[in-house]
Amino acid sequence: MISTQLLDASSSRDIARAKQILQRGGLVAVPTETVYGLAANAMDPAAVKSIFAAKGRPSDHPLIVHIAGPDNLRDWAVDIPPVAYQLAASFWPGPLTMLLHKSPRVPAEVTAGRETIGLRVPANPVLLALLKDLKFGVAAPSANPYKRLSPTSAAQVFAQMSGRIDAVLDGGDCEVGLESTILDLTGPELRILRAGPITASAINQCTGLAVSQPQQHDIAVPGNVAEHYRPNTPLYLGTRAQIEVASKAKGRCIACLFYAEDANAPDAAQTVIMPKSKVLYAQRLYKTLYSLDSLGLDAIWLEYPPTDEQWRDVNDRLARAAAIP
Ligand code: TXA
Ligand code: MG
User: What CATH code would you report for 235-321?
Assistant: First the structure.
């Protein structure tokens, strides 16, 4: 067991401490605008290996490398198409991960032996400043144990990962709340491998190119397994009518999450009315599921949110988080 330090992102002393831990090959959970990431020096194979150990993540699941800016792309990737710079100019810093051909100098551990590498410039100002200061990029998966909910606050990381990592840098709650869009630029056409806040339409508008979005569970994204992002309490998706029925089941103690306006809240242990705006909904989703999960209830029922394009990432994560009734 390691004793995990809780560092404050508003203290320059604590940021210097985080930097020092990373330089020495340690693990620091860092805030990004999407979710907290578990960071290590991406050029240090031993440090990268310890990320997998801390998360209990299979070693064939590649990691995303976080870099300071598009100027650093050449340090990590080769054969970079011009469209990568066009996308970087529009969406970086921000929740877009670009899959490119890996440079031979990147340790195989980072990409789990693959010839491609996921790269992104995160928008969190503290992490971005840290990356500009460091001489290396950081590999960082979401800072949760394998298959569990991604953390959107330092407290959540601490609760799940304390004792397994050197430090958590507390930079407050994540603004976006859902993981980045993963876009594959290595094939004949642009392909979204993981739905995220940057939609296919936004990428098409920026580049003028067609963007395909194949069915999820694509093996090209090993972490794209069907069961993922799971709370411990069984989570069910349903219509309001189905939730009404579930709330009346004898002896069951459930929580209900409604999409926007309250109708007649059923007799549940907890009822949460989620925001109507997609941005706010996404920001709160994991946090809400995480806090309901701690109540030890029989089930969490969640009302289906809208299904239009901007909600695709929310629906994608919910489909993986939900159990079959
Ligand atoms: O928003 C995010 O992307 C967050 C923050 C911390 O940046 N990171 C994140 O990382 O969600 P992770 O490891 O939890 O999810 C990244 C996904 C995994 O499913 C992984 O298999 C896939 O990206 N991935 C990474 N590199 C890849 C590669 N070279 N080829 C295919 N899939 C890759
Ligand atoms: Mg993850």
Answer: 3.40.50.11030
- The answer to whether the CB of 35 is under 6 A from ligand 1 is yes
Ligand 1 centroid–CA 26 distance in Å is: 20
Q: Determine the Cα–Cα distance for residues 13 and 278; give it in Å rounded to an integer.
A: 37
Parts of the chain belonging to CATH 3.90.870.10: 5-212
Burial profile 97-107: b = 16 or more Cβ within 10 angstroms, e = fewer: bbbbbbeeebb
Q: State the pTM of this model.
A: 0.95
**Separation CA 18–CA 30 (nearest Å):** 9
- Say which CATH topology domain 5-212 has: DHBP synthase (3.90.870)
Give ranges for CATH 3.40.50.11030 in the chain: 235-321
User: What are the pLDDT digits (tens) for 187-243?
Assistant: 999 999 999 999 999 999 999 999 999 876 555 565 566 667 788 899 999 999 999
User: Which residue from 52, 61, 64, 110 has its CB within 8 A of the most atoms of ligand 1, so it is best to mutate?
Assistant: 64
Q: Which ligand is nearest to the CA of 38?
A: 1
Q: Rounded mean pLDDT of 233-258?
A: 89
CA of 223 to the centre of ligand 1 (A): 7
pLDDT at residue 249, rounded to an integer: 83
